[in-house]
Amino acid sequence: SKISPRHMHQGAHYHEIFAEGCRISGNVEVARVPGTVHFQAAHTNEKTLNLAFTNVSHKINHFSFGEDPTWGQRLLPSQYRKHAAPLDGRTFHVDKFHQAPHHFIKVVHTRFDR
To answer: Where does the secretion signal sit in this chain (predicted)?
Structure first.
């Protein structure tokens, strides 16, 4: 079958992304070497996605590397806190179907002394 323009939901701009969808949480142990981490929508045995209609708008509540930085962030001067977890609390909207934002972060080991 063919996807025609009438199937593309031309006027849709916002999905109920915060009422339903994926919730990702967990820990990943990796070596301290350069690399990449990927999260992507994909087919499973239970669900088949129509990638032409997939909207991957998302909000990042918290994303960090290393030990839990919560206690240490309270000790940081306020102008530095946003640099410890730059994606925290940010929302990324996708205006069109079949698009996905990419996030690039450089992780630098940093130690703050009291």
So the answer is: none
pLDDT tens-place values along the chain, 114 residues long? 455 555 455 555 555 544 566 778 777 777 888 888 888 878 888 888 777 777 788 888 888 877 765 666 677 777 777 777 888 889 888 877 777 888 888 888 777 666
What's the per-residue H, E or C state across 22-69?
CCCCCCCCCCCCCCCCCCCCCCCCCCCCCCCCCCCCEEECCCCCCCCC
Per-domain residue ranges of the chain? 54-108
Distance of CA 85 to the CA centre of its chain: 12
CA distances from 78 to 18, 84, 85 (A): 28, 11, 13
Q: Is-contact 90 101, C-beta < 8 A? A: no
DSSP of 6-19 = GGS-TT-----TTT
pTM here is 0.66
Nearest to 52 by CA among 13, 6, 5, 8: 8
